[in-house]
Specification:
mainly alpha, 83% helix, 154 residues
Length: 154
Amino acid sequence: FFLTASLFIYFIFAYFNVRLFDGNSFVQFMKIAGSLFVIFLLRILLTLLAGFVFKAESEFSFYSFHIFLFNKALGLGLIPVLLCLLYASALPQAVFMYAGILLFIVAYLARLIRGLNIGIARQGFNKFYLFFYFCTLEILPAVVLAKIILNHTA
């Protein structure tokens, strides 16, 4: 997942002329991969911490397991998109760029829906905590990341 997602994000940044990192192509790719790894490591740690705070460790670890599953599926789904970006010249690159972006969005929404289902299924779990978790650890980082990328678009 980290390799394919990082490579796709690198292609997205190059296609839309976004410069978040300095350096040559390989250095940019490595910085994207490192950033992606740190983001997901922090997300998993915060998810497990939230499980401890909300006294729902098993549900949050189950959700973390599903995050890994969705990421693996996304990584596998990005392989054909990357191959088409590199080798398919019959169609414009924009088709594959938007297909990959759509794949990211679908995986993210499916993961959010699965998380909501896990939280709703537990009896006695405060729905406010579920709403608080999704706003702070799922939706807010996506909005902040989108804002950073939009600010760095040349």
